[in-house]
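Sequence in, structure out.
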Amino acid sequence: MRNKQTGSKNISNCNKIQLTRAVLILASCFLILSQKAFSQNKKIVVVVRRPMTSADSAMVKQIFFSALSAKTIENTTLAAELFEKITQIDPANDASLYELALIKKTKNNYNEAQTLLEKAVTVNPDNEWYWTALADCYEKNNGIDKLDNVFNELIRIHPDKPDYYFDKANAFFYQNKYDEALKVYDKIEELTGPTDDLLANRQKIYLKQGKVDLAAQQMEQMIAADPSQIKYYLFLSQLYSSNNLNDKALKVLQTAVKIKPNSGLIHLALADIYRDKQNVEASYNELTLAFAIPDLDIQQKIKIILGYLPKFPDPNAKASALELSRILTVAHPTDAKAFAIYGDMLLQNEKLKDAKAMYQKSVALNSQVYEVQEQLVRIELGDNDIDGAVRDGENSLSLFPNQAWMNYLVGVAWLQKKDYHKAIDYIKNATSLELQDKDLLSQSFSSLGDCYHDLKDNKSAYEAYDKALTYNANNAFTLNNYAYYLSLTGEQLDKAEKMSKRSNELQPNNASFEDTYAWILFKQKNYNGAKAWIDKALADDTNKSAGKIEHYGDILFYLGDVDGAVDNWKKAKEKGDKSPVLEQKINEKKYIE
């Protein structure tokens, strides 16, 4: 019996020793794996597995499924809690470590995500997605020096995938390890053969190293291998020009243009070289050749035209931009953008009718660009083409009903046609659609004031003018009109005088504004002041309007110059003023209200 007990004890001790040894071997395995994964970074990540019963495994699977479901419906808080619970039960559950890390990344918590992913790749070093996610964390955490090992692992998993070699080379590049990066590019070339990406990346390194000759030599080899590939000539010329070797760049491009004379990119490159060599005429000639080639991207051409704008109003710049935009419409006759930019340049050159025709052409080609339509209606209003403004404006609003400015412009057109009710409807739309643009709001309420005045609703007119001035107290036209209409009724003459004076300060030498101020002074019985201002108004009025001449006669009458008054009333009549009151003034030789 004693021997049996002793033997049993020895067996028990032996089992304990074997169990301890098994744990040590298990830990050693994880330690070796961790060292393999992170030895280059001098960081060891140890993940200790816990013994899992079948019940534990079933529970983990159930929780994992619930966590994925929570993640699917974007309940990331619950998902994170569930994945965290799994890692507590099973610290080596790499899938949960990975999913939890992804959630941490969405919250920009890259430090914790990095730790989780380092554990995940320790447990499962053959999972590509774990390593790529870890690489992202290293980049975000400025751990560029750790990327080399990550990309080595990815290359181990996918030795024929060039992307990971490029990533590894880029990591070397950002660490200024240019020779190491070049070696990686050599390896990529073994896999893929020579490519443009390899060419560009090698050139980037050669230029960083100041080895322009090596970069050029590589390009010349590419040209020699395929002389018809124009892009290599362009690369080489750009290489030379960026290093102030313009003569060499020019020689390369002159060779290229003989091979492909209809290449817009070559002509653009030549234009740049000639500009750098200060040969303005040759540069412009190359631009015109490039613009005439339809295959050259229109957006690139438009960008060049817009580059002239900062040089305006220089006449040479305006003329060049105008001619290039004209050529654009010839090369791209079905592109609305070409006619729109040509319209813009014509407008800049004050050729309004031609600009209007180009905008109309642009809208006909593409009715979905609102800005062109607004520009068209503005020109039509400025050109007094009121019917055109109504037609094109209402067509635009059928497509873009919520454009506040267009509602305002159409309202102004109806105001010009004296259909005040339609005008009010459109202008009110503008004020309801726009609450921030103070310029639009001021102009809108000012125009509403004009409408209400013409409808004999002075109360509403004055309220609208007051509101216009709350958005812009220096709206000169509102100040003038409001002041003039007050003077006609003799109301609030002091307020009218201040507003009219301010309008003249804002826009001096405006004959209409000066006439208003003279009339208000006249109504205040300040006849000498009134004469001084009517003299200014007549001096600034090239047409010498009948209304101003009649006012001059009115003022002279109260200054005691009856003959002078009658003479001016007669001149007003000769100018076309046929009012019965004027006729009565002449006949009775006295001022009549």
